[in-house]
Amino acid sequence: MVYSETSKSVENVGDAGSVDESKLWIRAYEQMLKIRVFEEHVNELYRNAKMPGLAHLYTGEEAVAVGVCEALRRDDYITSTHRGHGHCLAKGASIDRMFAELLGKEPGYCRGKGGSMHIADQETGNLGANAIVGGSTALATGAAMSSKMRGTDQVTVCFFGDGALGQGVLYEAMNMASLWKLPVIYVCENNLYNEYTHFSETTAGEMDARPKAFGIHTEEVDGQDVRAVYSIAHRLVERARRGEGPAFMLCNTYRYHGHHVGDIQRSYYRSKEEEQLWMTQRDPLQLLSSWLVEQHLADLETFEQIEQRVRAEVAAGVEFALTAPFPDPSEVDRDVYA
Amino acid sequence: MSMLSTTAGQESYGSGRDQQMREITFGQAIREALAEEMRRDPKVFIIGEDVAEAGTVFKVLTGLVDEFGPSRVIDSPISEAGITGLGVGAAMTGMHPVVDIMFGDFIGLAMDQIVNQAAKVHYMSGGKLKVPLVVRTTLGATRRSAAQHSQSLHAWVSHVPGLKVALPSTPYDAKGLLKTAIRDGNPVIYFEDKMMYQLKGLVPEDEYTIPFGVADIKRPGSDISIVATSSMVHVALAAAEILDKSGISAEVIDPRTTFPLDKQTLVESAKKTSRAIVIDEGYERYGVTAEIASVIADGAFYYLDAPVKRMGAMDVPVPFSPVLEDLTVPTATSVAELAKTLCGRS
Q: DSSP characters for A41-109?
C-alpha cells in the first residue's frame, strides 16, 4: 500500500459539535460532490462524443481542492493544472460556464478559446489552469511576489501533481519564494502516477526533502481526508498571510480514472485491486459522510438533499452548455493582443 | 557614429522642433527610460541577475538601485525560467515587471515561460488576463564571446503570436521604444545590441515615446532600399556611404519592431527604389530577413527590377576566433557589393 502510511493522522480541528463546524463540513461535502458529479458528466459527454478533445478527471482527489480552497478568500489566487476542474469549482467557478468552456462554447469562461485545460476566472482569483506540467509554479510565485509588492495580504496557492516534481522551474520558483518569504503555498497532489508511470520510477529520494532543502515549511497530509487537508491548509494560509513565508503541502491522494478520459486500459501500469481499494476504503466523500453521521452532524436525508441539489445544478449546467452557441468565427483572432 | 532619426516628427514628444537635444549613449538612454517609467508608475520593477549594485554586466542599470531601492531593482538567482515566470505571474496580477535576461542566448532557458505562458495567457483566458511584461535581453556577435553569448535570436520570439518584439538601433529609438514597451499591455521582448551600449546619439530632454509598428527611414535614397534591424542598421548606413561614392543612392529603413511590422513603409520604399536588400544579424535560414523579404516581394512585386535579396548571420554556431567570427556577420563591404550587383554596377 502506498496511501496514507506516512500521512499524518487527522488533526483535531476543533469542536466537532459546533454549528459553524457542521456547516463547514456539510458545505465541503457538497463542494466535493459537485466536483464528483461534474466529472461524471464530463466523462459522459466524452463517451457520447459531445465534447471536443479530451479531459483529465479530478475524481478521487476532491478533498484536496476543496480542503485547500475552503481555507482561501475569494481574492486569494490559485493556479491550476491540466487536471484542474476540481480546483476551479472549489475556488468558486460556476458549473454552467465551466461546461460551456469544455464544449468550446461562447459563454465559457474563456469564450471557448481555452477549453478543459485552460480555465481561468479572474473574478474568483483563478489565474488559470496550465497544461504545461509545472508550468504555473513560477507564475504562482510571481503572483505571490506581486501581492507582497502591492501591499495586499492575498495568498496564492499553486496546485500541481507529483509529475511536476520532475520540472526544474519548480525548484527555481521555490528557491525565490523562500529567499523572499513570499505568500505562496505549493500544493503537491501525489496521485501516485505521472501520466502512466508510477512516481517511484521517476522520483529519486523523498518528495518532502525537496521543499525542505529550500527551507520551506513542509507538511504531509492524507489527501483523502478533507478535514485534515483543510486544517493544515488553513494554518499554512494564515501563516503566509501574516508574512511568515511559503509552505509546501504534500497531499497523498488517488486518481480514480486514467490519465485522461480515453485512458481506459490501465492494467499495464496499475491493478484493478489497487483502484478498488482506494475507491472503497479511501473515498473522500465516504470518509466525510461517515464521520458526519458518526458525529450526529448529518443524516442520510441531509446527503440525499445535497445530492438532489447538486445533480440538478450539474444537469442544468450541461443543458446550458449543450444549447449555448459556439463562438463567432470572428473571435479567432481576437484577444491575441490586449 | 551619431545620428538623428529623420522621421522624428512622427513621434509623440512634446515641444516639436524647438526641443532641447543632448548627446547620450545607448546604455544611458535605456537607463533613462527605465528611471522615468519607474518614477511614473510604482508598479514597474526590474528583476534579473546582478541588476542592482552591479548594474548588470554591461553597467546599463548603474545607479537605479540607489534611487529605487532593492525592492524595485531586484537581484535574482541565476534562474532565467524562474524570473521570467515570476514576471509573468506578477504582470497577471497588476505589476509591470521588466525582466533582465543578460544574454539573448539565455532566453532558451526561459522559452516555456515566454512562449507557452506569457504569449498565451491573454488569448487562452478569452481576453480576461493581461501580461504587461517586458523582457530585456541582448543580441549581437563580434564581442569575442563565442557560441553561447553571441547569438541574435529575435526571430524565435517574432514567430510567436501574442508577443511583440522591439529592436532599437539608436539611443533615441532605445529610449522611446523601451518606454512604449513598459506601457504596453502585452509581453514585449526588447533586444539590445550589446556592442551598441557606448554608441552616442541625440536624445530629447523632454519626454517622448515611439509607437510600435512604425519603421524609421534612417537615410533617404532612391536607387535601392536596404532594410536593416538593430546592429545591422549601422552596417547598412556604412554600406550606403560606400554606395554613394559609386553613385548609388541607398535608402536605409529600420522597422524598429519585427512585430508589429510596418509593412507599408517597407513596401513603399521598395516601390520607389525598385530594389531591396534585407539584413539582420539573426541566422539567415528561416530568419527575420525571410519574413521581411517576403513582405516586400508580395507588396512591391510589379515595381521590382530585381529579386529581393537577404543577408543574415552565417548559418553556423558563432565561432570564438576573431578571424572566424568576423566572417559570420554581414559587413558594410559585403552589403555594398550585393547592392551594386542588384543595381547592375558590379
A: HHHHHHHTT-SSS-----TT-HHHHHHHHTTS-TTSEEEEETT-HHHHHHTT--HHHHHHHHTT-TTST
Instruction: Tell me which residue range forms the domain holding A265.
Output: 19-322
Closest to B89 (Cβ–Cβ): which among A111, A138, A168? A138
B113 confidence band (pLDDT: 50, 70, 90) = very high
Residue A140 CB contacts under 8 Å (≥ 6 apart), including other chains: A77, A78, A79, A127, A156, A157, A158, A173, A184, A186, B89
- Would A114 be classed as within a structural domain? yes
- Structural domain contains residue A226: yes
| B17 pLDDT more than 80 | no
Chain A residues with CB-CB distance to B under 8 A? 77, 79, 108-114, 118, 120-122, 127-128, 130, 132, 135, 137-147, 149-150, 156, 168-169, 172-173, 175-176, 179, 334-338
Q: Which residues in B have their CB inside 8 Å of a CB on A?
A: 43, 45, 71, 76-77, 79, 81-95, 97, 112-113, 116-117, 121-132, 161-162, 164, 185-186
Under 8 Å CB-to-CB from A58, ≥6 apart: which residues?
Answer: A35, A39, A65, A83, A84, A85, A86, A87
Q: Which domains does chain B have, with CATH numbers?
A: 23-204 (3.40.50.970), 216-342 (3.40.50.920)
Q: A190: closest CA among A172, A169, A168, A206?
A: A206
Nearest to B85 among A108, A118, A173 (CB): A173
Domain containing A296 — which CATH number? 3.40.50.970
Q: Under an 8 A CB cutoff, do A338 and B93 touch?
A: no
Domains in chain A: how many in total? 1
- Please indicate, yes or no, if residue A140 is contained in any of the structural domains: yes
The x, y and z cell numbers of residue B246, run together, are: 559609386
Q: What percent of chain A stands above pLDDT 90?
A: 93
Whether the Cβ atoms of residue B26 and residue B170 lie closer than 8 Å to each other: yes
The alpha-carbon gap from B124 to the nearest alpha carbon of chain A, in Å, equals: 5
Judged against a pLDDT cut of 50, whether residue B4 lies above it is answered with no
| A contact test, residue of B45, B92, B112 with most A CBs within 10 A | B92
- What b/e sequence results for A56-76 when a residue is b if at least 16 CB atoms lie within 10 Å of its CB, and e otherwise? bbbbbbbbbbbbbbbbbeeeb
* Number of neighbours of residue B289 by Cβ within 10 angstroms: 29
- Residue B127 is nearest to which of A149, A173, A335, comparing CB atoms? A335
Please report the ipTM that was assigned to this predicted complex.
0.93
Contact across the interface for A335 and B122, Cβ inside 8 Å: yes
Place of cell 541625440: B202
* Of A50, A90, A51, residue with least CA distance to A74: A90
Alpha helices by DSSP H, chain B: 26-40, 64-68, 80-92, 107-111, 121-124, 154-158, 171-183, 231-245, 263-273, 288-299, 322-325, 332-342
B149 part of the active site: yes
- A111 contacts in chain B (CB < 8 Å): 126-127
Identify the pLDDT of residue A6: 36
Inside any domain, residue A139: yes
pLDDT confidence bin for A31, thresholds 50/70/90: very high
> Which residue, among A207, A133, A132, A146, has the nearest Cα to A177 in the 3D structure?
A146
Pick the catalytic residue from B96, B122, B149, B234.
Answer: B149
Count contacts between A and B (CB, < 8 Å): 147
The alpha-carbon gap from A65 to the nearest alpha carbon of chain B, in Å, equals: 21
At residue A335, the pLDDT reads 97
> Mapping DSSP to helix (H, G, I), strand (E, B) and coil, where does residue B141 land?
coil
Q: Which residues of B touch A146 (CB under 8 A)?
A: 89-90, 92-95
Q: Bridge-partner residues for B252, per DSSP?
A: B219, B226
